[in-house]
Amino acid sequence: MVDKKKILIVDDEDTIRELLDIAFSKAGYCVRLATGAEEALELLRKECIHVIFIDLGLEKMNGFQLCGIIRKYSPSAFIYALSGNAELFSPPENFGTGFDDYFTKPVSLKTLYKVVNDSFEKIHQLTNN
After folding, report:
1. Domains plus CATH for the chain?
2. Segment 65-86 mean pLDDT
3. Which residues, including other chains, have CB under 8 Å from residue 94's CB and lie 6 or more apart?
């Protein structure tokens, strides 16, 4: 069962991480932050996190590569792409890496709240059936 509603934000932009941290923390979620892929993978080795937002333009390992690795070890996680570059989302076969959906920055907090709430509702349904 999911006892804490944890969210991981992986983004190399301080402003984005801080904004999402404040917004989701105020909404009652337990937020973890990572500036890059290595830090994110280290956090995921230590903690079970079911909802993850990944910036596609990370250095060293991009968001597509990171998503592919996470998906291998956490197939039931809800993983969402974030990017300021809409061209990265086409062609559709880019989503063969396992993202559940994607959002172009800037994205409204209302939209992200709905996505997170829906994700945890699905997790709740799956763990209680």
Report:
1. 6-127 (3.40.50.2300)
2. 91
3. 64, 88
1 has a pLDDT exceeding 50: no
Specify the DSSP element, H or E, that contains 18: helix 14-26
79, two tokens: 């993983």
**Cα-based distances in Å from 6 to 18, 52, 61, 79, 96:** 16, 9, 23, 13, 25
Classified as helix, coil or strand, 19 is helix
Read off the amino acid at residue 12: D
**The pTM is what?**
0.91
Name the nearest CA neighbour of 53 among 82, 77, 75.
Answer: 82
Residue type, 16: I
Structure tokens at 30: 């337990």
Is 73 exposed, middle or buried, given 0-12, 13-18 or 19+ CB atoms closer than 10 A? exposed
Average pLDDT over residues 9-29: 97
Provide the token pair at 14. 């301080």
Q: Are 84 and 56 in contact (CB under 8 A)?
A: no
Largest CA distance in the chain: 40
